[in-house]
């Protein structure tokens, strides 16, 4: 418990450091949301100056930061210039949509990677392993951008799946089951793109960890006791190979909000990706900072979760 | 083959190999090029019951591959393995299930020799559970008995291997191996890496267990001093072949093969250096 408290305290310090850096870097970047307005002849310089004062952009950096901290304590996380709404009212729905996508992709990728990596390690050097390694090498060499565009192309050409968005136009009239099926059909393209992008890394990690463990004498000793191969792989070798995979799983959790931004933007998934892109292009500062902070919270939570899982899973870590 | 080994051939051996060969093929990804390593070349070898047979040779001579084949952790490419009257070289896992308990191995002490996630008691009860010999509370009691038998306090039963010393880990590995009451215990460099005092204690333990249970040992070692003290028979391996096999006194006093002679000469030089070093230390 003391360990968890210490790690949580470190997490809060990290959040503060990231927020300070966000403000520093945004201040270094040229231009602001209101600079775009100056180009519009219908907006007078007085109006622009008044808005600058209203949003506090005429204040020094330290003052702006402290005001933002104050708004965080009120649960607002700053104010969006473009939407004229508190950031906290914009992010939850987008974050929920992103999580629906990334959770499905993460669960599916791990569900495929674990058995495939174990099988590949077990057949190390044989044709099944060589085929898996060749396929993962190919997948690794293709950017996820290409997967997303390729899958969209297939969806458009075949009309088998919807090409973009999260629900059909007439989804409001659907019952619960139809809505679920509709969501699943819309998830198919972005989830497949994300799975294809992350699968080779996961498979290779599972395989490498398993090969290392399968070569250890205690596995030979267990085999020498007459233990069956399936039980040997799943209950002896895999738990012993799990530590690096738990750390990798922590990184998967950490990337739940930030790992799909590109695919979301390409496939038109209404998650944080398009919002971040739009906010960054229009210099809607507090939305960008809000998304970065949310991603940081997930990163901290992911690494903390991995550490806790390691303690639970490995008696050696518990002993330390 | 020496006269003693010839006599052994007339009495039933516990384990015997005939023309045993094993090769490893290393292929390179996407290339046709492959390297073939003949680890064992037509090995004929016998292990006399209730005796200590030592297998000596340089690193890479094929000792551990032979041990792996004998314990059927590796499948030989050619030849026969006769164990207690059965030819087991082509048996599948299902058939081997009845033989596994009688053929146990103890490996060199290393972080991977024992499952690092299990406690000492779990490591000992693992083979009993796999073979479905015991269940429940009697398992735990049996584990403690076995620990006492190999000189480990039952208080250590909850510790994991990394919380034990090297000597304690080897005792634990021996306890796991004898839990199934094997006929043959293959000691694959099991005493390497231990200090001399611990090594002597483990040797005494093995000799005690041999007299109690009538165990047969195959001692794989490159330490000829140790082999000279405990082995009844010695087989010398070189380049995947048994180049000499006979009674220990015969091998040590009248070696027939050049490789055996060079191994013994090296051992004498090593012993002389050790004596000189210890004499220098006394001065």
* Beta-strand percent range of chain A: under 5%
- Elements of chain B, N to C (H/E): HEEEHEEHEHHHEHEHEEHH
Overall strand count of chain B: 10
Considering residues with a beta carbon less than 8 A from a beta carbon on another chain, report the largest interface and each chain's count.
A-B, 25 and 34 residues
SS elements, strand count of chain A? 0
Based on the structure given, which CATH architecture of chain B is correct?
A: 3-Layer(aba) Sandwich
Mean pLDDT across every amino acid position of chain B: 87
Portion of residues in beta strands of chain B equals 15-25%
Q: What is the helical fraction of chain B, as a range of percent? A: 25-40%
Shape of chain B: globular
Helix count, DSSP H or I runs of 4 or more residues of chain A: 14
Name the CATH superfamily assignment of chain B. Answer: P-loop containing nucleotide triphosphate hydrolases
The DSSP helix count of chain B reads 10
CATH superfamily of the largest domain in chain A: MetI-like
* CATH architecture heading of the largest domain in chain A: Orthogonal Bundle
The biggest beta sheet of chain B is recorded as: 6 strands, mixed
Give the low-pLDDT segments of chain A. Answer: none
CATH top level label of chain B: Alpha Beta
């Amino acid at each position: 418990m003391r360990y968890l408290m210490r790690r949580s305290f470190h997490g809060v310090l990290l959040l503060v450091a990231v927020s300070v850096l966000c403000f520093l870097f945004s201040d270094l970047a040229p231009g602001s949301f209101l600079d775009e307005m100056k180009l519009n002849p219908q907006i007078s310089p007085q109006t622009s100056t008044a808005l600058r004062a209203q949003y506090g952009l005429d204040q020094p950096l330290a003052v702006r930061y402290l005001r933002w901290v104050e708004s965080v304590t009120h649960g607002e996380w700053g104010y969006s210039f473009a939407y004229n709404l508190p950031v906290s009212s914009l992010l939850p729905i987008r974050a929920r949509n992103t999580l629906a996508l990334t959770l499905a992709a993460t669960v599916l990728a791990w569900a495929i990677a674990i058995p495939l990596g174990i099988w590949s390690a077990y057949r190390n050097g044989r044709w099944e392993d060589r085929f898996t390694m060749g396929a993962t090498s190919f997948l690794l060499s293709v950017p996820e951008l290409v997967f997303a565009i390729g899958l969209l192309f297939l969806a458009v050409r075949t009309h088998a799946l919807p090409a973009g968005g999260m629900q059909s136009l007439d989804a409001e009239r659907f019952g619960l089951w139809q809505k679920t099926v509709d969501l699943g059909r819309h998830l198919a393209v972005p989830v497949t793109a994300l799975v294809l992008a992350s699968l080779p890394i996961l498979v290779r990690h599972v395989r490498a960890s398993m090969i290392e463990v399968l070569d250890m004498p205690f596995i030979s000793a267990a085999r020498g006791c007459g233990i069956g191969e399936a039980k040997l792989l799943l209950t002896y070798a895999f738990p012993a190979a799990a530590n690096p995979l738990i750390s990798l799983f922590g990184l998967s959790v950490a990337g739940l909000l930030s790992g799909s931004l590109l695919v979301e933007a390409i496939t038109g998934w209404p998650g944080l990706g398009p919002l971040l892109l739009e906010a960054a292009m229009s210099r809607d500062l507090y939305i960008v900072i809000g998304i970065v902070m949310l991603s940081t919270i997930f990163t901290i939570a992911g690494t903390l979760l991995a550490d806790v899982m390691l303690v639970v899973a490995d008696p050696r870590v518990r002993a330390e | 083959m020496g006269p003693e080994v010839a006599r052994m051939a007339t009495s039933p051996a516990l384990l015997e190999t005939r023309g045993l060969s094993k090769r490893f093929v290393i292929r390179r990804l996407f290339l046709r090029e492959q390297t073939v390593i003949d680890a064992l070349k037509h090995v004929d070898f016998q292990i006399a019951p209730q005796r200590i047979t030592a297998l000596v040779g340089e690193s890479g001579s094929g000792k551990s591959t032979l041990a792996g084949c004998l314990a059927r952790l590796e499948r030989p490419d050619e030849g026969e393995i006769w164990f207690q009257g059965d030819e087991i070289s082509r048996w599948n896992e299902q058939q081997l299930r009845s033989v596994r308990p009688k053929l146990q191995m103890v490996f060199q002490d290393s972080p991977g020799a024992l499952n690092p996630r299990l406690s000492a008691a779990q490591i000992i009860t693992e083979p009993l559970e796999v073979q479905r010999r015991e269940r429940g509370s009697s398992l735990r009691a049996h584990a403690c008995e076995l620990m006492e038998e190999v000189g480990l306090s039952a208080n250590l039963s909850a510790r994991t291997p990394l919380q034990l010393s090297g000597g304690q880990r080897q005792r634990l590995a021996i306890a796991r191996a004898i839990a199934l009451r094997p006929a043959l215990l293959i000691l694959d460099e099991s005493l390497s890496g231990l200090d001399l005092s611990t090594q002597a204690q483990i040797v005494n333990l093995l000799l005690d267990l041999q007299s109690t249970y009538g165990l047969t040992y195959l001692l794989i070692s490159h330490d000829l001093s140790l082999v000279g003290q405990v082995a009844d028979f010695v087989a010398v391996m070189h380049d995947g072949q048994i180049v000499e096999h006979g009674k220990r006194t015969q091998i040590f006093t009248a070696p027939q093969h050049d490789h055996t002679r060079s191994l013994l000469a090296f051992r004498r030089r090593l012993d002389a250096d050790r004596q000189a070093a210890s004499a220098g230390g006394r001065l």
